Amino acid sequence: MQSEQRQATDLRGKVAIVTGASSGMGEAIAEELVQRGARVALFARRENRLQALAQRLAGKGNEEPLIVPGDVSKPEDVQNLVNQAVQRWGKLDIVIANAGFGYRAPIVDGDPQRWKNLLDTNVYGLLLTLKYGVEQLLKHGSGHVVVTSSVAGRSVTAGGAVYSGSKFAVGAIAEALREEVGQQGVRVTTLEPGAVETEFAAVAGYPPGIAEAIKQRYRQRRSRWSSSRCLSSQATSTSPS
Ligand SMILES: NC(=O)c1ccc[n+]([C@@H]2O[C@H](COP(=O)([O-])OP(=O)(O)OC[C@H]3O[C@@H](n4cnc5c(N)ncnc54)[C@H](OP(=O)(O)O)[C@@H]3O)[C@@H](O)[C@H]2O)c1
């Protein structure tokens, strides 16, 4: 059993891209991939943070990570990420589509520019990552796509219209992708985390304590809901058989 587990998690020879690798969950995923032997391209806007991560990971894996600074909402930046990974390592196996941020405000008080930036990043940026990334996986008929949605992609609270809306869209996009490529050897996993301590709350501009308040609200709801609509963190995955 133990050796089976080790075999399943050995990623030597696999090539991965990670969007949103400069902090939080993307950074943690990138670190895990490197430690399991994958060759990893790190993508986010803050190049200095990607460099710091690459330095921290030096010697922990088989190969130095590739640093590709860019904005996920710009097609040319996402194409550059995929092209650089493929040029360096000859293929792509794993796409971690994780870049995103939050925002809370009642609709009547909302900032339209913030809405646009959020949808450009969380939805359009995801589509770009999938378009250019999955194209490469299909070339060799195998691979794994991991998409970061949220518990907010299952349940909406006041003030969460735009962020929740974006994560409902993420869920729908991942589901469509599963239908489109599941039979072509590409596995799609949707992560739906609950509240996780990262830079997320600060970037979203949440006042202190809001993450805990949201967590409590979800907990109360969960206790009223049936287990089939459980709101704790979860992952949905399909594997080509
Ligand atoms: N933390 C939570 O409680 C929670 C719960 C459920 C789901 N999530 C989701 O988890 C994902 C990761 O969030 P996190 O919690 O790890 O937050 P985080 O620490 O703030 O990380 C967000 C990452 O996304 C990147 N990013 C944001 N906008 C980008 C853009 N336009 N182009 C490229 N990269 C961009 C950021 O890098 P740069 O700023 O350097 O570009 C950063 O690396 C997000 O999709 C978020 O919605 C978070």
Characterization of this structure:
There is one protein chain. The protein has 241 residues and is an alpha/beta fold. It folds into 2 domains: 2-206, Rossmann fold, CATH 3.40.50; 207-241. Helices cover 48% and strands 15% of the residues. The protein is built from 8 helices and 7 strands; from the N terminus they run αβαβαβαβαβαβααβ. A 7-stranded mixed sheet has the order 3-2-1-4-5-6-7, sandwiched between helices.
Helix and strand topology:
Layout: H1 2-9, E1 15-19, H2 24-35, E2 39-44, H3 47-57, E3 66-69, H4 75-89, E4 94-97, H5 112-140, E5 143-148, H6 161-181, E6 186-192, H7 200-204, H8 210-224, E7 234-238
Parallel strand pairs: 1-2, 1-4, 2-3, 4-5, 5-6
Antiparallel strand pairs: 6-7
Helix pairs in contact: 4-5, 5-6
This protein binds NADP nicotinamide-adenine-dinucleotide phosphate (NAP).
NADP nicotinamide-adenine-dinucleotide phosphate (NAP) binds at residues 19-26, 44-46, 49, 71-73, 98-102, 121, 125, 148, 150, 193, 195-196, 198-200, 203.
Keywords for this structure?
globular; single chain; 8 helices; binds NADP nicotinamide-adenine-dinucleotide phosphate; Rossmann fold; 2 domains; 241 residues; alpha/beta; seven-stranded mixed β-sheet
How is this structure best summarized?
This protein has two domains: 2-206, Rossmann fold; 207-241.
Q: From the helix content, strand content and strand pairing, which structural class follows?
A: alpha/beta
Strand content: 15-25%
Give the fraction of residues assigned to helices: 40-55%
Please tell me the CATH architecture of the largest domain by its name: 3-Layer(aba) Sandwich
What count of helical segments does DSSP give?
A: 8
Mean pLDDT: 90
